[in-house]
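In this section we walk through a basic example: taking a raw amino acid sequence and producing a predicted 3D structure, encoded as discrete structure tokens. The instruction is simple. Fold the sequence below.
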Amino acid sequence: MRSQARHATMLVGAAVVGLAVIAFAQGQPTPPVQPQPHGVFGALLDYLRRQPFILMFLVVAAGYALGQVKVKGVSMGSTAATLLLALIVSFWAFQSYKIEYSLPEFTSTVFFNLFIFAIGMKVGPQFLGGIHREGKHLIILALIVPLLSSALVYASRYFTHLEPGLLAGILSGANTATPGFGAAQAALASGSSVLTGEAARAAPDNLTTSYAFLYCISMVVFTVLMSVMPKMFGRDAVADGKEMEKELAGEDSAPLPGTAESFMGGYMPLDLRVFRVENPALEGRTVADLDHAHPRVAIERVYHKGRVYNPPPDLVLNRGDEVAMLGPVSLLLAGGPHIGPEVDDSKLRNVKFDTVEFIVHNDEVVGKTLGALALRMGHGIYLNALFRAGDQLPVSRDREVNRGDVLRITGSPKRVAELRKVLGPAVKPSLSTDIITLGLGLAAGAFLGAITVPLFGIQFSLGSAVGLLIVSIGLSILRTRNPALGGPFPESARQLLEDVGLNVFIAILGLNAGAGVVHAIAGGLLAPTLIIGSIAAFVPPIIGWMVGQYIFKMNSAVLMGAIAGARCNSAGMRAAQEASKSIVPAIGYPVTFAISNLLLTLICYLFALLG
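The resulting token sequence is shown next.
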């Protein structure tokens, strides 16, 4: 085990042991006296209670800053740091000043749904390839982790006495499975439980307290664990993430149409060079003659007799004129010396490039080869890539263009405008975000997740997270086939939704949990909840990782997402993305998340019935 991984593991272990010590040391009821906020800190914490907006974003900002701090080369990451900081603030406020924070759950839901939708819009094009490659392994992992966790929690009944309601609360909290917690609540409320009398009355409180406390602890420690898991087992998640991206997309592929990064700049083998006409053979020749001599290079502007021209074909060139030529660098280097010396400080250099996408619908273009189209309309235009049905195709002169193909083209605004006359409207890069598509996508995903299906007496639903993932992944896949579907969704906007969405959700979760943690300590529930919950929360993911790495030989970046999904832990998936510096963990997340959620919902319902 590497030194960084050892240090992080010791950090996690110390946190768990420390909480256990607190449990045994403070297992007395809270004093009946309710002290009022006092002193500078009391006044400050009480002010933040009355200003939840300020409180929420102060915690988010401080969490981001704390998450960047490295100890022995290991950092917690923004998600774990935000949650830990929110827990500390809420615990301190309630324990010392009896100040309880209660931020609206609706706000938490809104930001979490924005995060999930942004993930799906990024990972969609790679999702199908990842499922095709690792589908069977993902399903097996989605069974191993929750079933093993359930078995460990159930087995604890034979070694310790558990208060009524703790069985389901520990299982749902350890796996951060909110649907499982809801199913357990429904089971206790139905009256079908074996519990009676005082035990039946105590079970709902024990269920809620153990779930809330263990949910927060499990969330913090698991996000840290996910960031160091590859190093613990000698894997490089960053390298594996890049390897998977290349494998799914192709070594030299361009970003697919409709994706958030489709218009992000990269290497472009085009350049604009300016040459002064010094060759006597060009004296008195026209721009059309020069075009004919250099068919794959476009003459964009000409400085002639003290004026700058967008040159007409019949403009006659004189010695001393300057000619701005746009084309592949190799052709400019070969053809330029036949015109004259290159000019560095010319007035003609401010020609801009546009990169746009055209969707082929015109009957005059369908069925033609790229070579034929290049002769007809390719002057001064560079074809970056050709896409068909969401796949990039090799570009060759004999390649026929089909209806619905997407051509990504770069050229000067003048050349692009000429292409529009033949190819039709173009999809252009934009800094704005299409709110209509975003709003409809969020509504459709939430609606899909809210549909309930009776299953063994339980009203089971996918939940908003899975529903939004399905809709956003489907939408992003469709946009690769037709980038005009919906409006622009730039990468900067998508990344903002992802980062702010998750961390605001995490901040609210931690700020609302302080009172529950204090009650768990005071009620003596912390010790059994923490010990059993820690085993159920962290042993199954480690075993699942070993199965994925040593038996299935899975890519570690995909495996990180699969384990996070099997643990129903979106923050862990985000931590995996931070650790791997890749979107690849999101490929393994949805399948394991959905299956694990279903299993844990059913098992938590059963555990609640058993008491």
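Looking at the output, two observations stand out. The two ends are 41 Å apart (CA to CA). The chain has 21 helices and 13 strands. In the next section we compare this with other chains.
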